[in-house]
Design brief:
Among the domains are: 3-89, Beta-grasp domain (Ubiquitin-like (UB roll)); 93-270, Nucleotidyltransferase, domain 5; 317-406, no CATH class. It is 29% helix and 23% strand. It is built from 15 helices and 23 strands. A six-stranded mixed beta sheet has the order 7-6-5-8-10-9, sandwiched between helices. Helix 7 packs across helix 14 (497-506). The radius of gyration is 24 Å and the shape is globular.
Length: 540
C-alpha cells in the first residue's frame, strides 16, 4: 500500500466505523462497496497498536498485511485514538481520452478572452475542460476521482447512502471536487477565474440529483421517478457553493432515471440526432447506457453492468490511473521443443505432455508506470485471452491451478474466479441490452458510436470474443472517448445548443429492460463464453 500523510483519528464514542469517521471529516478513502465489507479496498495502516483483526479482515487481507497493521476502515471501530496512514491518491492523472471537439458553430457576440468550463460528472471519475468559446476549442483538461466513491462505486450505492442521510455530505463532496477542478484549470491555462463566464455540467441522473440537492428517494424504488430532468440554469454560486458572482451555471437535461444528461450530451456531441440513417450509441460505465435511431427519434435504455468495467468489485481493480493494466496478451509457452498456449493445463491432442509453464503474460499500463491493478480494458483483455487459451471454460470457470488463488498478471495484480463472475454478469447485461434495443428498432443501423474512456481504449475484437458485443460491432464502430465532456464543450460553443439538447431529451423513448419479455433469456444466454452467437445478422 503506497502511503500518504498520517492522520490522527479520535476514538468512536457511538460505535461508528473508521470509514464513517473519515467521511465525517471529509477525508477521502476509496470504498467501492460502500462499506459493505465485500471489496477490501478501504485499507488503512495503523502506525501502532492495530486492533485485533475481524473475520472480515482475515478473509480479505493477507497475513503479511495484517502483520503490517493494515486493516479495513469499514470493519474497524476505534476504542482509542489512533494514528493511521491512508493510501496515496493518484486521481489527478486519470486519462481524459478522446478530447476532440471538432468544428463547432461559435456563438455570436462574444468578446475576446471569454471562457467556459465543461464538466462531466462520472460515477467514478470527473473530467473538466476549459473552453475558449471564441475559437471553439478546449484549451486545458483536468481530471479527478469522484470522491463520492467513499459511499460506493455505483449509483445504487450512492442512492442508498443518500436515502440513509448522507445526501448533503455527498453534495458537498462533489461541489468541493468541482471547485477544485475549476481552480486547477485556471492554473493550467494561466487565466483569471473572472474570465470564466459559464460552467456547464452533464452527468447521469443520480449524479445530477446529488449535485443539485434533489431528493433521491424516488430513484431508489420502483417506478424510479426522477425529481427533475429538465435543463437547469442559474448562478454557479448556487450550484457549486462558491465562485464569482454573475457566472452562469447550466446542468443539461436528462431522459430518464437511468439515461441521464451525460447521454444527452454524448448524442448531441456526435451529432447522432441529426443523422438520416440509424446509428447505435453505447456508453459503458457502471451502467451501460445506449441509444439507437437518428433525426426521426431515438430509443434508449440502460443495462445495469455494475462497476466492473471501471475497475470496481474486482480483487485488484482500479480506475484508469497511471499503473492500471490496460492491455494484456498471453503468449505461447515453450516446452520440449514445441509451442503451446496454456499447455500446463491443457490435455488431450492439444498437448504433447510435459508442459508445466503457464502462458507468458505481456501487459501495458497507463503511463508506462509500474502495475497497480486492472482497469476495465485490462480485465476484458485478460478474460478474452484466457478464454482463447481455454483457461476459462464456457461456464466461466478458471482452470487449475489458478481457480483457488487467481491468475497472476504482475506482482500483486491477479484475476480471481470471483472477478470472472463479475465480468460475466456485467457483459451479459450489456449484451442483452444491446440485442433488446436493436430488435426494438425498426430500421437499419449504420455507425456504432462507442463512448467513454473504457470504449476508447478497448480492443473491440476481444470484447466480441467474450460476448460483450455482437459481431457486427467490429465493422461499424467509431470511438468517441469522453462523449459527455465533448458534448458539453460543444454546448458551450454552438448556437442553438439548448434547443437541440432539449429536443434529444424530449424525442427519446425509453425501453424498460425489466419489463421486456426477452431480456431475461438473453441475459442468461450471454453469461456463457464460447463461440460468438451473432445469429448471422448484420445490422448495416
Amino acid at each position: 500500500m503506497k502511503r500518504e500523510a498520517t492522520y490522527r483519528i479520535s476514538a468512536s464514542r457511538d460505535g461508528k466505523t473508521l470509514l464513517a469517521l473519515l467521511r465525517e471529516r471529509g477525508i477521502y478513502i476509496d470504498a467501492p462497496c460502500g462499506g459493505a465489507g465485500n471489496c477490501g479496498k478501504c485499507r488503512v495502516a495503523f502506525r501502532r497498536n492495530a486492533p485485533v483483526p475481524t473475520e472480515k479482515e482475515r478473509r480479505l487481507l493477507t497475513e503479511s498485511e495484517l502483520a503490517e497493521g493494515i486493516r479495513l476502515a469499514c470493519a474497524v471501530v476505534l476504542a482509542e485514538d489512533a494514528f493511521i496512514d491512508l493510501p496515496r491518491e493518484e486521481q489527478t492523472a486519470i486519462a481524459a481520452l478522446g478530447m476532440e471537439t471538432g468544428p463547432v458553430q461559435r456563438k455570436s457576440g462574444k468578446d475576446g478572452g471569454r471562457y467556459g468550463i465543461a464538466i462531466d460528472i462520472g460515477t467514478t471519475t470527473l473530467a473538466a475542460a476549459l473552453v475558449d468559446c471564441d475559437i471553439g476549442e478546449a484549451v486545458a483538461v483536468h481530471t479527478a476521482v469522484n470522491r463520492q466513491r467513499a459511499y460506493g462505486a455505483d449509483v445504487i450505492s450512492r442512492v442508498k447512502a443518500a436515502n440513509e442521510g448522507h445526501a448533503e455530505a455527498m453534495r458537498e463532496q462533489i461541489r468541493a471536487d468541482i471547485r477544485r477542478l475549476v481552480e486547477e484549470l485556471s492554473v493550467k491555462a494561466d487565466i483569471e477565474p473572472a474570465a470564466v463566464r459559464e460552467i456547464a455540467v452533464a452527468g447521469n441522473t443520480v449524479m445530477c440529483h446529488l449535485l443539485r440537492g434533489l431528493s433521491c428517494r424516488t430513484l431508489g424504488e420502483a417506478p424510479f421517478t426522477p425529481a427533475d430532468l429538465s435543463l437547469w440554469e442559474g448562478e454557479c454560486r448556487e450550484l457549486f457553493g462558491g465562485g464569482a458572482a454573475g457566472v452562469k451555471g447550466t446542468v443539461l437535461p436528462g431522459i430518464s432515471a437511468f439515461v441521464g444528461a451525460d447521454i444527452v450530451a454524448g448524442i448531441y456531441g456526435c451529432g447522432m440526432h441529426r443523422l438520416k440513417s440509424g446509428a447505435f450509441f453505447l456508453d459503458i460505465g457502471t451502467n451501460g447506457e445506449m441509444a439507437v435511431g437518428g433525426r426521426d427519434g431515438l430509443l434508449v435504455t440502460s443495462a445495469a453492468a455494475g462497476p466492473v468495467f471501471e475497475g470496481g468489485n474486482l480483487s485488484c481493480g482500479v480506475p484508469g490511473i497511471p499503473g492500471a493494466v490496460a492491455h494484456v496478451t498471453l503468449k505461447r509457452a515453450i516446452s520440449a521443443g514445441r509451442a503451446h498456449l496454456g499447455a500446463d493445463v491443457l490435455s488431450g491432442p492439444a498437448c504433447c505432455g510435459g508442459c508445466v509453464q503457464k502462458p507468458e503474460v505481456f501487459f501495458e499500463t497507463i503511463g508506462g508506470c509500474a502495475p497497480t491493478g486492472l482497469c476495465g480494458t485490462g480485465v476484458i483483455d485478460l478474460v478474452s485471452e484466457l478464454v482463447r487459451a481455454r483457461l476459462i471454460d464456457e461456464n466461466g470457470t478458471l482452470a487449475d491451478p489458478w481457480s483457488e488463488e487467481g491468475f497472476l498478471v504482475a506482482q500483486e495484480v491477479f484475476l480471481t474466479q470471483r472477478d470472472i463472475r463479475e465480468v460475466q454478469m456485467g457483459k451479459s447485461a450489456i449484451r442483452a441490452g444491446i440485442e433488446t434495443l436493436a430488435d426494438a428498432y425498426d430500421g437499419k443501423i449504420g455507425t456504432v458510436f462507442l463512448a467513454g474512456g473504457f470504449g476508447y481504449e478497448m480492443d473491440v475484437a476481444k470484447a466480441v470474443r467474450i460476448g460483450l458485443f455482437p459481431g457486427w460491432f467490429k465493422k461499424q464502430f467509431r470511438l468517441l472517448g469522453n462523449s459527455s465532456l465533448n458534448g458539453v464543450v460543444r454546448f458551450l460553443c454552438e448556437e442553438g445548443a439548448r434547443d437541440e439538447t432539449e429536443w434529444i431529451a424530449s424525442h427519446a423513448r425509453e425501453i424498460n429492460l425489466a419489463m421486456d419479455p426477452g431480456f431475461g433469456d438473453r441475459y442468461l444466454q450471454y453469461m456463457f463464453f464460447g463461440d460468438e452467437d451473432d445469429r448471422g445478422r448484420s445490422r448495416g
